[in-house]
């Protein structure tokens, strides 16, 4: 491990749409909200410190959504970081939030338009760096849901367009309507059902943003693959899990989230963890 280099910078870079370079280890801003991703955080100032400390450590890609809070995460990001000099802020639309822990998909194209414009106001920008369809709503044609994002892009209100929790076929269909620069699906060392989507993104040069990137379970036990490799490289199992993701693919952009500065620093230190091929495959073959 190299303790001197900027953690996020040490993770390498990826260019969204071949135009917007970001460090590959970013920050997910869901956990800076209250319990159940609802309401304000218990410690407002700690959430602000998390955001600012992340930038100090080289993070230049922050992922949020209008549904986080709802609205709370976007408001905190603006308070802590506006005017975002050198920082790419990605947000999402497509969920309604009736209460703590409750999520309802709503991809009504006109609501998506209003949601994007509301995110513009909350974040205090004229154009959203990356706007992602949080979920595809089966009640509306995919072409209409992505199409409204394309209209916003043509109006200069959105720079890049992304998807979340989608299949390869859905990504292909969406690319017939718009340039898709990112896909955000559940993926970690213990959950790899979207392997085909990751491989497609790698072939096509599309960023793959694994949400819930830290899930270690029994693999983190001392005699488990994450635990044993952690001892070998002088790191924590969480750091090894993130390092495994970074090594897995050059299009992988993990966005671990936290509401704690201490956990943030632990997560970002993963960029300095170097796994050799044997260690990587030992973890890969553990499932």
What is the fold's blueprint, element by element?
Layout: H1 7-10, E1 13-16, E2 20-23, E3 27-28, H2 44-56, E4 61-63, H3 72-81, E5 88-93, E6 95-96, E7 104-105, H4 109-123, E8 128-133, H5 142-154, E9 158-164, H6 168-175, E10 180-186, H7 195-204, E11 207-211, H8 225-233, H9 237-248, H10 261-268, H11 277-284
Parallel strand pairs: 3-4, 4-5, 5-8, 8-9, 9-10, 10-11
Antiparallel strand pairs: 1-2, 6-7
How do the helices and strands follow one another from N- to C-terminus?
HEEEHEHEEEHEHEHEHEHHHH
Separation of termini?
27 Å
Beta-strand proportion = 15-25%
Low-confidence regions: none
Q: Care to count the β-strands?
A: 11
Strand order within the widest beta sheet: 3-4-5-8-9-10-11
Helix content: 25-40%
> Mean pLDDT, rounded to whole units?
95
For the largest beta-sheet, the strand count, sense and barrel status come to: 7 strands, parallel
How many H/I helical runs? 11
What gross morphology would you assign? globular
CA radius of gyration is: 18 Å
Which class best fits the helix and strand makeup? alpha/beta
Oligomer: single chain
Summary?
With 287 residues, the chain is of the alpha/beta class. The protein contains eleven helices and eleven strands.
């Amino acid at each position: 491990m190299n303790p001197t280099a900027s953690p996020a910078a040490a993770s390498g870079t990826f260019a969204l749409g071949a135009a917007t370079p970001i460090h590959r280890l970013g920050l997910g801003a869901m956990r800076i909200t209250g319990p159940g991703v609802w309401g304000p955080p218990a410690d407002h100032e700690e959430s602000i410190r998390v955001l600012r400390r992340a930038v100090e450590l080289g993070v230049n890609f922050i992922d949020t959504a209008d549904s986080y809070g709802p609205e709370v995460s976007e408001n905190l990001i603006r308070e802590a970081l506006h005017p975002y000099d050198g920082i790419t802020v990605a947000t999402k639309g497509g969920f309604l939030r009736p209460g703590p822990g409750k999520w309802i998909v709503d991809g009504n194209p006109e609501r998506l338009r209003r949601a994007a414009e509301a995110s513009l106001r909350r974040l205090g920008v004229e154009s959203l760096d990356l706007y992602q369809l949080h979920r595809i709503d089966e009640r509306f044609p995919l072409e209409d849901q992505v199409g409204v994002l394309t209209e916003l892009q043509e109006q200069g209100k959105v720079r890049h367009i992304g998807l979340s929790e989608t299949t390869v076929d859905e990504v292909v269909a969406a690319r017939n309507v718009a340039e898709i620069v990112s896909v955000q699906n559940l993926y970690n060392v213990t959950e790899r059902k979207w392997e085909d989507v990751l491989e497609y993104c790698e072939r096509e040069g599309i960023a793959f943003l694994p949400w819930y990137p830290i899930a270690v379970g029994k693999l983190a036990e001392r005699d488990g693959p994450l635990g044993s490799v952690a001892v070998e490289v002088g790191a924590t199992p969480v750091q090894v899990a993130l390092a495994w993701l970074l090594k897995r693919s050059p299009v992988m952009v993990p966005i671990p989230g936290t509401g704690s500065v201490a956990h943030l620093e632990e997560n970002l230190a993963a960029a300095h963890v170097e796994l050799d091929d044997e260690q990587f495959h030992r973890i890969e073959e553990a499932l």
